[in-house]
Design a protein that fits this description.
By secondary structure, the chain is mostly helical. Helices cover 73% and strands 0% of the residues. It is built from 3 helices and no strands. The chain has helices at residues 2-6, 8-22, 27-75. The longest helix has 49 residues, at 27-75. The model has no long low-confidence stretch (mean pLDDT 76).
Amino acid sequence: MTVWGRRPLLVAIPLWMSFGSAAAVTEQQVCYMLDGILFVYGIVLTVLYCRLKIANARDAKAKEAKQKQNVAEAIYVGLAPHAQDTYETISVKK
């Protein structure tokens, strides 16, 4: 990036000089260059896709764990101790 900001002419001159040699490249060499570019492009896209899938799987696993924790806590939310005994003693009158 600093090359573009300071001296754009230094970058433009080699590019301009290489246009003459581009005409000397045969079709077969151009095909090999394009194959190399497509190969690198395919690898980059594959890496980005795998990174995306791993990140989504990690997020889904964290979300699922959080939901399980919330469900476990929600089981005990409605429970409260009873004030009176459930079973009352029967008084025997004689």
